[in-house]
Amino acid sequence: MKKLRLSIIILLFVTVNAFAQSPIGDGGQQFNFGVGLSNSGFPVYASYDFGVHPDITVAPMVQFNLDGFDYMIFSGRGDYHFNTLLDIPQTWDFYAGLNVGFAAYFGDDNGDNDGISGLDLGAQIGGRWYWNDKWGLNLEFAGGKGWGTRFGLSMKM
């Protein structure tokens, strides 16, 4: 199932030929933060999007587990925004992307997080709703060494 989801996301990246613009656009910036639920506990995350193309953002991201602070993930991510392709209003933002990073496990080796340290490759799909020109709600589904959801706020800079 993971391979199918990843294949669909890659296919979308390869076949999309549109002139869309994400809500932050080329040169825009946005700070994202929030909480989540994953197979490893309750993560807290923060990322900072940079618009590098009208349809594409890249971002550094950090995530750690609120449940005992037993792991931390540092990653870089890239997202394609589907707004113009799907003719979506600027108050909404739908995107999908890939991420690569490093996961560090600090646990007591009780077996519940075996193998989490090391390279972390993953994918995400999500959306935002902006209630004004600066603030929005964000919901994202992601996978990598683990799976989970993230819910938080996005603030355009």
How do the strands and helices of this protein lay out in sequence?
Elements: H1 2-15, E1 29-38, E2 43-53, E3 56-65, E4 71-81, E5 92-105, E6 118-130, E7 135-143, E8 147-156
Antiparallel strand pairs: 1-2, 1-8, 2-3, 3-4, 4-5, 5-6, 6-7, 7-8
Polypeptide structure, described:
- The protein has 157 residues and is mostly beta strands.
- It has one domain (2-156): Beta Barrel (Porin), CATH 2.40.160.
- 9% of the residues lie in helices and 56% in strands.
- It has one helix at 2-15; strands at 29-38, 43-53, 56-65, 71-81, 92-105, 118-130, 135-143, 147-156.
- β6 (118-130) and β7 form a beta hairpin.
- Residues 11-20 have low confidence and may be disordered.
- Tell me what the CATH architecture is: Beta Barrel
CATH fold-level assignment: Porin
What is the CATH C-level name? Mainly Beta
Q: How do the helices and strands follow one another from N- to C-terminus?
A: HEEEEEEEE
Tell me the major beta sheet: 8 strands, antiparallel, barrel
Strand content: over 45%
Mean pLDDT score: 79
Oligomer: single chain
Query: What share of residues is helical?
Result: under 10%
In total, how many domains does the architecture comprise?
1
Brief overview:
This protein is mostly beta strands. The chain has one helix at residues 2-15; strands at 29-38, 43-53, 56-65, 71-81, 92-105, 118-130, 135-143, 147-156.
What are the main properties of this structure?
157 residues, mainly beta, Porin, eight-stranded antiparallel β-barrel, 1 helix
